[in-house]
């Protein structure tokens, strides 16, 4: 059973470009969470999704950020018109039963030049 | 909103010594979870505590959930170099869908 797969591992974007981060949850997991981590800081909740539904997006900026988890395919975190402050590690986690025992992917390190 | 706080932020330990890291929530938690993140790695689930006053052990690690279900602790005995990393506690509130993480305790070990 493959773990949570995130790609790309590293993403470099120039200011103003779009960043797309992908996350394939573990097989059988329908709950997906996105977290953001800055160096030497904790994990900041961004969004919680179930298949085709956004359950809680209270941690995600309303502008430029969006997330989806379609019926088929991976969950996508999209950041439009990136700025330097968006540089961070973005982790995806999945679980079979909501907020219990999250399984994390290896993360995507986004660098904005 | 709910806040989860951890102390200390950094823990420098001599190999073989014991130490404890503490986690406090501003609200009552339905459960408390602990994760470990190695340098350059991703968080890995260690354990979940659900009952008031619960104590669980994993080899040299002892986890405790407070009676009021608002605080928790992780005690590591005879620290080894493999214990290096950042330990996060995390908890949901009973009606909350998201897991709020503390800022973590980063552990370094002197051989």
Entry summary:
With 113 residues, chain A is mainly β. Chain A has strands at 5-7, 10-13, 19-24, 31-37, 43-50, 53-56, 65-68, 75-79, 88-95, 103-104, 108-112.
Describe the model.
The complex is a heterodimer of chains A (113) and B (111). Chain A has 113 residues and is mainly beta. Chain A has no helices and eleven strands. Chain A has strands at residues 5-7, 10-13, 19-24, 31-37, 43-50, 53-56, 65-68, 75-79, 88-95, 103-104, 108-112. In chain A, strand 9 (88-95) and strand 10 (103-104) form a beta hairpin. Chain B has strands at residues 4-7, 10-14, 19-25, 32-37, 43-49, 55-58, 61-65, 71-76, 85-91, 100-101, 105-110. In chain B, strands 2, 4, 5, 9, 10 and 11 form a six-stranded mixed β-sheet that branches. Chain B has a five-stranded antiparallel β-sheet with strand order 1-3-8-7-6, with no helix packed on it. The mean pLDDT of chain B is 94. The interface between A and B is medium-sized, with 25 and 22 residues.
Largest sheet of chain B: 6 strands, mixed
- Helix count from the secondary structure assignment of chain B: 0
The percent range for helix content of chain A is under 10%
Provide mean pLDDT of chain A, rounded: 94
Overall structural class of chain B, as computed from helix and strand content, comes to mainly beta
**What is the gyration radius of chain A calculated from CA atoms?**
13 Å
Overall pLDDT confidence of chain B: 94
**Which range does the strand content of chain B fall in?**
over 45%
- What shape does the CA trace of chain A take? globular
Tally of DSSP β-strands of chain B: 11
Counting helices, strands and paired strands, the structural category of chain A is mainly beta
Oligomer: heterodimer
Low-confidence stretches of chain A: none
> Uncertain spans of chain B, ≥5 residues at pLDDT below 50?
none
Distance between the termini of chain A: 37 Å
Sketch the major β-sheet of chain A: 7 strands, mixed
Order of helices and strands of chain B: EEEEEEEEEEE
Strand content of chain A: over 45%
**What is the CA-based Rg of chain B, rounded?**
13 Å
- What share of the residues of chain B lie within helices? under 10%
């Amino acid at each position: 059973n493959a773990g949570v797969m995130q790609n790309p591992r590293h993403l470099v974007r120039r200011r103003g470009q779009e960043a797309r981060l992908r996350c394939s949850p573990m097989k059988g997991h329908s709950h997906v969470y996105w977290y953001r981590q800055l160096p030497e800081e904790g994990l900041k909740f961004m969004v919680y999704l179930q298949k085709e539904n956004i359950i809680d997006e209270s941690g995600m900026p309303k502008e430029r950020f969006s997330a989806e988890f379609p019926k088929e395919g991976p969950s996508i975190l999209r950041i439009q018109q990136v700025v330097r402050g968006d540089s961070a590690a973005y982790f995806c986690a999945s679980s079979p039963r909501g907020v219990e025992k999250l399984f994390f992917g290896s993360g995507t390190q986004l660098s904005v030049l | 909103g709910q806040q989860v706080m951890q102390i200390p932020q950094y823990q420098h330990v001599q190999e073989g010594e014991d130490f404890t890291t503490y986690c406090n929530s501003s609200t009552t938690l339905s459960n408390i979870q602990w994760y470990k993140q190695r340098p350059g790695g991703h968080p890995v689930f260690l354990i979940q505590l659900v009952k008031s006053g619960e104590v669980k052990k994993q080899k040299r690690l002892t986890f405790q959930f407070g009676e009021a279900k608002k605080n928790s602790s992780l005690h590591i005995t005879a620290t080894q170099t493999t214990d290096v990393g950042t330990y996060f506690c995390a908890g949901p509130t009973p009606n909350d869908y998201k897991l709020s993480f503390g800022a973590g305790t980063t552990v370094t070990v002197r051989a």
